[in-house]
Amino acid sequence: xxxxxxxxxxxxxxxxxxxxxxxxxxxxxxxxxxxxxxxxxxxxxxxxxxxxxxxxxxxxxxxxxxxxxxxxxxxxxxxxxxxxxxxxxxxxxxxxxxxxxxxxxxxxxxxxxxxxxxxxxxxxxxxxxxxxxxxxxxxxxxxxxxxxxxxxxxxxxxxxxxxxxxxxxxxxxxxxxxxxxxxxxxxxxxxxxxxxxxxxxxxxxxxxxxxxxxxxxxxxxxxxxxxxxxxxxxxxxxxxxxxxxxxxxxxxxxxxxxxxxxxxxxxxxxxxxxxxxxxxxx
Amino acid sequence: xxxxxxxxxxxxxxxxxxxxxxxxxxxxxxxxxxxxxxxxxxxxxxxxxxxxxxxxxxxxxxxxxxxxxxxxxxxxxxxxxxxxxxxxxxxxxxxxxxxxxxxxxxxxxxxxxxxxxxxxxxxxxxxxxxxxxxxxxxxxxxxxxxxxxxxxxxxxxxxxxxxxxxxxxxxxxxxxxxxxxxxxxxxxxxxxxxxxxxxxxxxxxxxxxxxxxxxxxxxxxxxxxxxxxxxxxxxxxxxxxxxxxxxxxxxxxxxxxxxxxxxxxxxxxxxx
Lengths: 282, 272
Description:
The complex is a heterodimer.
Chain A: E1 5-14, E2 24-32, E3 36-41, H1 47-53, E4 62-67, E5 70-71, H2 78-84, E6 85-88, H3 101-112, H4 116-129, H5 145-157, E7 163-167, H6 175-192, E8 195-200, H7 203-206, E9 211-216, E10 219-224, H8 226-230, H9 233-238, H10 245-255, H11 267-278
Chain B: H1 16-19, H2 22-38, H3 42-58, H4 63-68, H5 74-86, E1 92-96, E2 99-102, H6 103-129, H7 132-143, H8 153-183, H9 193-199, H10 201-224, H11 243-265
Antiparallel strand pairs in B: 1-2
Helix pairs in contact in B: 2-6, 2-7, 2-11, 3-6, 3-11, 5-6, 7-8, 8-10
């Protein structure tokens, strides 16, 4: 099961209008079941457009997108695809529909026609999973940004999807809210085997992903594990992307002749390597 | 001001009236309005008064809050009263200079004023005890038989609940834009009415622009959560008619019957 393809993007090209610039140019990628995939890209790189292609909000101009065996251009499958591939958006305010938290979580279920008792069970489970049970009766405008995004995640989770796509879902949050939301997604990925597609322009959020795809100018610029991607400091810079501080530091030290190995991402790793250099006997 | 806004008039306490089904409350209010309109004599009004007092006591809504609904109507009330008092013909009661007060005039003045007062009180009894969301749910279900004639009952209710959801958000945003414009020297307070209305333009334009953006975002979010109209939809909030609802309906019908009986058997103008 673990290596089965969940989403397949096959030579997709997309433009918003006929004759306009192509936002995505002949992109192909595969998302495996149960994986945490981070898609990185600068503003205007096409990463949000890619996200909206993954659950049929947009349809590809050329090529095709297959989600859980269903082609997004097949109109009969549109609602099944959206149930399988849930999506969290950027602005926490603009995706909450109801005036009470638990009713918002119910929204997707109501649309799917889930019977009432089943609905109640799923809502409670979903709110529990994002640690929002005690705020079930709150009004959305009384919640913090991070809490609102967790409600949005619960709303998607209740629909029992196989994939959750988060389209820059932390961009409008404070650091604490960002950490909360990212933590919830990692936990869902770990504990429930949820496939997560995490779209962001914050490098540090991609550090714990299983795999990173860097998108630039509508094409895939880099692909690999966080270590592989972040060690290419020079390439990342030319794509207007930062790398984690320690990777950048290691890179400049290497340039100055310090023999540090590739793939250093955290302070701990850096300390360890520097210690090894200073006292080789240990 | 933004932290604790209550939407509409809703007075959130728990009471037997609050617990009535919103559909039943809408029907009861309509029946009550009919009752107020068919009531022809003063003894009928006493009955309605007794009923209203009993219902408002049962609703745990303070008397003061109930009366607040009448405040905006005070001019219309006075106007109605005076107009009827001075401009009707009939048996003269007394006169002050050229102004003649007739028996019919006085009767009509009191009649119409009471009618207005009871109309407002009975409708605000409904809005005070029913949350706007419950109200829109009730309206949706009451109007749903009209779907056969393509009446957009679900769509209207959905629009109303989204509007309610976004009121606090937009108010926050208005506050933010206002502060931003003030920081750049905008003046919202001084000047005459025209100047102040003009000062609103730099507030309203960004507000509209962002509302449209929000609408686009929300539509996309709703679609990605499988929203495709009212068909085949189930509901989390299920409305249920209980014994209390039937009891309330019974009392209301009894009230209407009594009003009709009083109209027939108590001659007009016995009191007044």
